[in-house]
C-alpha cells in the first residue's frame, strides 16, 4: 500500500470482503468508546420470547465482546452451548459478524453456536434473555471509563448488576476474578 494510501487500502478491504477472505481489523477502525447513555437506535425485542420463541436458548453472553476473541475461543470448547457477543460499536460488531461467517465457511459444521449482535447492553440486555436463562455472563474489560465524571457510563454498577442478575439462574455467583469455565 505504498501509493494511494488509505483510500486504496479501504478499497482493498471492500474487495477482500466481497472475495470472502477473512476480515481484517484495520478496515474496521472505530472510536475506542461509544456513549452508552446516548439515544442511538437499536432494533430490540420487547421481550425475550418475542425474539425467538421456539429456538434453543443462549447460555453464554459476552457483554462488550470487542473483536470477538472470547467467543471464537469458547465456541470449540462448548460446541453444544449457544453464545452471543453484544457490542455497541457498529463497525466492531460488523467485523465480528463477518469473522464468524468466515470461520463457518472455512470450518464447515463448526462455529454454528456463536453470533454477535449490535446493541446497548446497559439499556437492553434484559430484553434478550429470559429469567435464569444465562449460565455465564462475561464482562472482560468492564471499566473503560476510569475518570470520575464517567462513572455513570460504567457497565458494572450495583444497579446494573441487579438488573443483569435477573438473567442468571437462582444461586448463581458473581465473581470478580478469573474462574474455571468447566470445559469438558
Automatic annotation (TrEMBL):
Gene3D superfamilies: Vaccinia Virus protein VP39. Signal peptide: none annotated. Residues 20-32 have a biased composition (Basic residues). It is an enzyme of class 2 (transferase). It comes from the Eukaryota. InterPro entries: SAM-dependent_MTases_sf, tRNA_(Gua-N-7)_MeTrfase_Trmb. This is tRNA (guanine(46)-N(7))-methyltransferase. The lineage of its organism: Eukaryota, Viridiplantae, Chlorophyta, core chlorophytes, Trebouxiophyceae.
Amino acid at each position: 500500500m505504498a501509493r494511494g494510501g488509505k483510500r486504496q487500502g479501504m478499497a482493498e478491504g471492500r474487495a477482500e470482503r466481497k472475495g470472502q477472505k477473512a476480515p481484517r481489523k484495520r478496515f474496521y477502525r472505530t472510536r475506542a468508546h461509544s456513549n452508552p447513555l446516548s439515544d442511538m437506535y437499536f432494533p430490540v425485542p420487547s421481550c425475550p420470547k418475542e425474539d425467538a420463541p421456539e429456538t434453543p436458548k443462549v447460555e453464554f453472553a459476552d457483554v462488550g465482546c470487542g473483536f470477538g476473541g472470547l467467543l471464537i475461543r469458547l465456541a470449540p470448547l462448548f460446541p453444544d452451548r449457544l453464545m452471543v457477543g453484544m457490542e455497541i460499536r457498529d463497525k466492531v460488531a460488523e467485523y465480528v459478524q463477518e469473522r464468524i461467517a468466515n470461520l463457518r465457511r472455512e470450518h464447515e459444521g463448526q462455529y454454528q453456536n456463536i453470533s454477535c449482535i449490535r446493541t446497548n447492553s446497559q439499556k437492553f440486555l434484559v430484553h434478550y434473555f429470559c429469567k435464569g436463562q444465562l449460565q455465564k455472563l462475561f464482562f472482560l474489560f468492564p471499566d473503560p471509563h476510569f475518570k470520575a465524571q464517567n462513572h455513570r457510563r460504567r457497565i458494572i454498577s450495583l444497579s446494573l448488576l441487579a438488573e443483569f442478575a435477573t438473567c442468571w439462574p437462582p444461586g448463581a455467583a458473581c465473581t470478580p476474578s478469573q474462574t474455571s469455565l468447566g470445559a469438558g
